[in-house]
Amino acid sequence: MKTLNESATGKAIDRVEGHLKVTGMAKYASEFPIKDKVYGQGLNSTIAKGEIVSIDTSEAEKLPGVLKIITYKNAEKLKTFDNKMTEVSTTTIAPVLQTNMVHFYGEYVGLVVAETFEQAQYAARLVKFKYKKDANPAIHLEKLRAKAYKPNDKSDYSRGDLKAGLAAADERLEVTYNTPIEHHHPMEMHAVIASWDNGKVIAYASQQIVNDATIAISDTFQIPKKDVRVVAAYVGGGFGSKLNVERHVIMAVMAAKMVGKPVQVTVTRQQMFTNTSLRQHNEQKMKVGAKKDGTLTALSHETLSHTSPTLEFQEACGLGTQMLYKVPNNFVTHRLVPLNIQTPFAMRAPGEATGSFALESAMDEMAWKLRMDPIDFRVKNDTQTDPSNNKPFSSRLLVECLRIGAEKFGWKDRKTEPRSNKKGNWLIGHGVSAAARSAPYLKTNSKVILVLEGDRVNATVQMDATDIGTGSYTIIAQTASEYLGIPVEQVKVELGDSNFPVTPGSGGSWGAASFCNGAMAACVNAIKTLKQNRNIKEEEEVELADLMKKNQLTKFEAEGSAGPSKEFDEHSVYSFGANFSEVWVDKDTGMFRIKRMVNVGAAGKILNPKTAYGQIIGGLTMGVGMAQAEQTRIEPNFGNFITRSFADYHVPVNLDMANINVVFLPEDDKIANKMGVKGIGELGITSVAASIANAIFNATGKRMRDLPITPEKLIEAKIEPGINI
Ligand code: MOS
């Protein structure tokens, strides 16, 4: 087989769909020119808790173009939850408009359908709801600690004896970190165009996992899965918010049936705060014990968070604390309080992004207590065996990430003593953090269609995988190019259609590994079959075009599937990384700038350094957002979000970002999967906020334990005892 051609995996080729995107030809969900489509506009509750007592639709109904106003009164009866509290991960249904009960501010209470977008928007404002409001909605996590409950079996973990471990320590630390509610806000807003045809549904929808979306629609409406088709050819970001089908999809499908026309619902930017999930506020209590020489003796991580009154989601902040360091005594819990706030869900590196802020800040705090270099402290407690399950890591280059990062960053020039690196009004600091993110690999099917035209073979690879901006199209094309031995220009990749072979979709950093191994399997099968048919030995090199000719074929199709091996299951498979930050803090205003960042990752084979670099840059940017700006604030009396646009929910812009150096370590991990690919999308955000907070400590002597680190918090924070001012 021909291996390394110019467009094979590992090469930094341009995105194969790049031209389509920059010329506006790539079609996103709301851009499909569906004939006769009409528009739906979701209506949002204006109370946090209570019930609808009356609805007046008369004024709205009189408007020209208005086709239907759907509320709980006339909505189709859908499959609903059996229990009062349902675990998000265990349900495949997404009921909406089924009762008059309101559970959070902004919950959908209706949908207006009209001929034009403008008519729907205007009519939506004229629908009047009267509510019986509950006087005491649950909106303050801090005041409702007593209501915390243990969500599920996986929420508690322990090994050894935490108390004994703390007692055996020379230095102890007990601190609490807070991370606020955040929102995903992909550039492309959630959208769907749904229609019915002879009892069958087609939905053009902005979703990360096409197969799950078909299941959600079929289970919610109780129709066979084969009668549902979901198309998500291009997705403009998701970050977890598009993993599940959110309620606008179900409303659009319902409305399309009721009005007998295709219905488009595009969620507004404001509704993306209230109706497309969020990352919840986490209160994380850390306890760390260590010997003078830096040996960890105890580590515990207790997380308090919130969920909605009907659906349970728990962000597993403590998972990293179970596996990252060799420590015999370890204790992890997660507790939830039901609040009248929409159901939280996975946001980029759920668990790791927030959990690593607590863990990697605490590690830095302990290193300082021990007066030990924070890199040496981490290296001292490194392990090649996952202490949470005693499985060996398939490969773990964490020490290499830290050491090589230190070299690239110039760590040796860092001033150990906080507040000792100054330039005019600036206090300069350097911080480090370690990152680990599991590298899942899930069963993936794909199909390759080969067509001989003259002397060349054109290949089409199909699977229901999605490209959410990550580069799936490109890396799958490169994979086919490599394993078929043809240039990438002769490979066409077709994704995001539930008519194609089933994949796990995009999420949890499993996409690249799963999709590419799946594509490889189809390509390898194609060649194998073509050779077998003509009694050609497998190791004999034959051009694909010649193979087709020898088989007297002008068209040939093959399928393939790939998934984790027994060896995979017997190992802990993770990507590892290290983050380094340099911050400059204005000592009078508390304003700070992140001047430089170095990110080193060991994430298996890098399929395309260019798209991989983009993933890390995106992760670092979201990490800077966490550290510096992002937070969703709740109005304390009414329970509505007062940050509901980019004017008040701040995300970093170009000028906020630093000079970034991204380094990928060469890593050959064939236990992870045949191609040795591990995820990077979520590794990129993991522990970024901690490296920035640790740099701020080094600059100012102040421990910033509440994100985001705003100038006013920084000004008010006390310098830690024992630090020279
Ligand atoms: Mo990710 S939070 O699994 O899209």
**Biggest sheet: strands side by side, in what order?**
3-6-1-13-10-11-12
CATH topology of the largest domain: Aldehyde Oxidoreductase, domain 4
Give the ligands present: dioxothiomolybdenum(VI) ion
The chain-level structural class is alpha+beta
**Mean pLDDT over the residues:** 97
> What portion of residues belong to β-strands?
15-25%
Total beta-strand segments: 28
The CATH homologous superfamily name of the largest domain equals: Aldehyde oxidase/xanthine dehydrogenase, molybdopterin binding domain
Number of helices: 18
Main sheet record: 7 strands, mixed
Question: Fraction of residues in helices?
Answer: 25-40%
Q: Termini, distance in Å?
A: 66 Å
Topology of this structure?
Layout lengths: L17 H5 L15 E7 L5 E7 L1 H5 L3 E5 L15 E2 L13 E2 L5 E7 L2 H10 L1 E6 L23 E3 L2 H6 L3 E9 L11 E7 L2 E6 L4 H12 L6 E4 L15 H13 L3 E4 L4 H4 L7 E9 L5 E12 L3 E2 L6 H5 L5 E10 L13 H18 L4 H7 L4 E2 L4 E2 L5 H12 L12 E2 L2 E13 L5 E10 L2 E7 L9 H13 L6 E4 L16 H23 L10 H7 L4 E8 L3 H4 L4 E13 L5 E11 L6 H20 L30 E6 L23 H13 L10 H6 L9
Helix pairs in contact: 9-17, 12-13, 16-17
Bound molecules: dioxothiomolybdenum(VI) ion (MOS).
The site of dioxothiomolybdenum(VI) ion has 11 residues, from loops.
